[in-house]
DUF2851 family protein (Maribacter cobaltidurans), 426 residues
Amino acid sequence: MREDLLHYIWMYKKFPKLDLTTSNGESVSILHSGSHNKLSGPDFFNAQIRIDGQFWAGNVEIHINSSDWFAHNHQEDRNYDNVILHVVWNDDVSVYRPDGTNIPALELKNYVDSNLLGNYRNLMLTRDVGFINCSKDIDVVSNFDFNNWLERLFIERLEDKSKIIFSLLKEFNNDWEKVLFVLLLKNFGSKINGEAFFHIGKNFDFSIVRHLIEKPMELESLLFGMGGLLQFDNITDSYYQELKKSFEYLSHKYNLDNTIASSISFFKLRPNNFPTIRLSQFATLYAGTNNLFNSVMYCSDDELYNLFKIRASTYWDSHYTFGKVSKVSSKLLSTKFVELLIINTIIPLRFCHQKRKGNPMNESLFSMIHGIKEESNNIIDNYKNIGISVNSARDSQSLLQLYNNYCTKNKCLQCAVGADLLNLKP
């Protein structure tokens, strides 16, 4: 038996509603099971229960054994003085309040359906090791229920991302343009260089970028310099020297501090994802667009894709790194990369911007995410391998949320799939 199952049983009243009695034989009628508390303190707040005809309002604490009350030192914590019912699987010891009155105990093992317990064991305790706990059984969940769950997961994922965005807004004094700048820059760095790029963006005043509109070379030098990519004396390439000279001027003018040089990495990256290429592309985007935030918030989907039809500066047509000539090719942003920017930056920002305006989730966001092809990674591939249909970025984003926040944490009882499997009839 696990305590999370007892929480589930109590929250959803998975036991008979009539003829309940405490361990001392007192009748129990549950009027309101209370609000689930996931922080410190009793497990359920503000419950309403009638015990032996007497109405009680207060908190409920749940344990596997009654003696866990003392194992957890609740007798020393005044937060538990208002517990009106002790819900346990096994009532092995009496528990008393500081005033000496007994806390009634409801022993659930006398009431829970054996089929529910069997389903729980199959899901959580006797499963074969696989991708996720429900790998072999997930296909019995109806498409309707599963799709509704994915919709909720997508919104949950946006809510999680919004916490970071609102934190940045507070840090940057509600400058939406600055927030867009640092988040876009982070996503241009992808997984390998995302954090380094993010700190580049945070490490200087955004007003500098505003001053460098229509000056792509100067903006490129700023980003390369802040990334520590202009510190080498053995590169005699003329463009490199020009960038270095420009950054020295900007550094002196704006008193810049480029202390994150060691964070930038080329390791395990394909050449088109080299930080040199991505930073140049990013500089092209910002040097050629004034007030980018308004553009990405209010433009149509087609206009949004057109905004990101950018390429690295011409030097990079024949280079991937400074001073080393390569086969000529224009370094354009691919559609796939643009879609990742939309998924990870534009849609969350639109969600937050609309939320500030009192309209957090309108059809345009659903339409946009459904119109983007699903992402491809090991997690999504594994879901496909167990029979899950993935038809759009909405599905892949929702499944990533499901995997990271539920499957890997064994939160099956908080998952719609787990709940359905738990309640399967024999």
Observations:
- Residues 3-112 form one domain.
- The longest strand covers residues 54-65.
